[in-house]
Amino acid sequence: MNCRKARSYILASYDEELSRSEKKELLKHIENCTRCQKEKLYLEQVRAGVKGLPEARLSDDFNNKLFARIYSAPHTEATKMSNVPSVLAYHFRMITPVLAAAVAVFVLVWVGVGQFAANNSDNPQIADVEGQLIQRVNERPVPMIEESYSYSANGLAFSVAKLESLQVAASLKDNELLFRRLRLEAARNFGGFGNGLNGMRKTGDDEYNAQRKYIYPVVRPAGSDRQPY
Amino acid sequence: MLSREKLSDTDLMKRIQKEDMVAFNIFVDRYKNRLFTVINRMLDSSEEAEEIVQETFLRVYQHCSTFDFRFAVSTWVYTIALNLARNELRRKKRIKFFDIEDFKEKLSAPEKKPISDPSKIANLLGKAVRKLPDKYKEAFILRDIDQLSYEEIAQILSVPLGTVKSRVNRARNLLRDQLKPRMEEYYELSKGSLLHLGVL
Q: B8, A70 in Cβ contact below 8 A?
């Protein structure tokens, strides 16, 4: 055995992992090797010294202090044991979106069937097929919202048209050229803007046309002596 | 009435999860001295060690619901305690402390004072353990002071088994090297007696 192997045996002997034959082999080596003898002795002293280390003691009221800390600790999500989510709560949280989707689908189907049944309530075949569900739907009070809805829709369309007109008028207010063109188009197609634009400023053409005198040709019958004026 | 000896760590942990404070008390009694010994050796301060052990049990109580029963309870508890101790060591390293006793010894005593009394080795060894690098120190303490198996230490430290063995042996060799200059005389006294070598 060489010193290298003997050192590994010495370390193994520290953990008492040597077999009887390995112990004999090591003993045989260290009888003749002073360096390994010292290594062995010093390691034994380390082990003996560790066992003889002075031991400190915990204070007698260690448990009391600990339990006082536990009871006075703030009950946060992490500390409060009752807040620890149970397995049931965990699964419920996981299936909540699925449940919500299922409820939404059910409501939509229920409303759709109700509408369908309302529209076809006079059809005995459908009433027979749908049975109690359709009967229940038919018993619902007639929603009054439909009439007001159509009225509101018309009003809304009217409001939108009005709003667009106002927007056009506002954009044209300061655009003289466009305004004139529009006015001419309006006059050509349906006789002008009407009273709605009376308050708007007159252009130079309006003033010119107002002062202009037209001479209309007079058609006289042949042989007539009558003067036109 | 719970039997302290009969209940396994796993049974205790299951009861603690149900807020059984009697089980928690048994658990504390089972581990407090072992943890205190280890942490006290690491920090070399009984007050700080006691504080760390208290914090360890507090965290065990607070986070017992997260315990994974595939692992050993002891491993989990030791890991919490060692992590807290490491944090404390890091904090202490940022604020550098000097031991006035070390300066006294350096001023009053020669460097290589031989040890004639083997009982003094323990005191010398205590100081030598304190000066070990942290990773060697924790492996050495868990193995040679707390007598844990290499497998348990490997799980606690999250390192391979071979690494644990090499760290422990490295720590032993470092301690031996520190003691060597002062044990020459003792060797001369015991020279020739193989009984002292523990081989026979």
A: no
Whether residues B117 and B196 fall in one domain: yes
Asked if residues A113 and A132 have their Cβ atoms less than 8 Å apart, the reply is: no
Interface list for chain A against chain B, based on CB atoms closer than 8 Å? 11, 13-14, 23, 26-27, 30-31, 37-50, 52-59, 62-63, 65-67, 69-70, 73, 78-79, 81, 84
**Whole-angstrom distance, CA of residue A157 vs CA of residue A164:** 11
pTM exceeding the 0.80 threshold for the entire prediction: no
Total domain count, chain B? 2
pLDDT at position B123 is 77
Tell the burial category of B27 from Cβ atoms under 10 Å away from its Cβ (0-12, 13-18, 19+): buried
Instruction: Read off the pLDDT of residues B47-80 as tens digits, 9 standing for 90 and up.
Output: 999 999 999 999 999 888 888 888 889 999 999 9
B171 neighbors B132 (Cβ within 8 angstroms): yes
| pLDDT tens per residue across span A162-175 | 666 766 666 666 66
* C-alpha to C-alpha distances, A194 to A43, A89, A185, A202, nearest whole angstrom: 118, 72, 13, 14
Q: What is the pLDDT of residue B57?
A: 92
pLDDT of residue B177: 85
Domain around B156? 99-200
- Closest-CA distance of chain A to residue B117, Å: 12
Q: Does one domain contain both B89 and B137?
A: no
Domain parsing of chain A, residue ranges: 3-51, 89-138, 145-200
* Chain B residue closest in CA terms to A48: B122
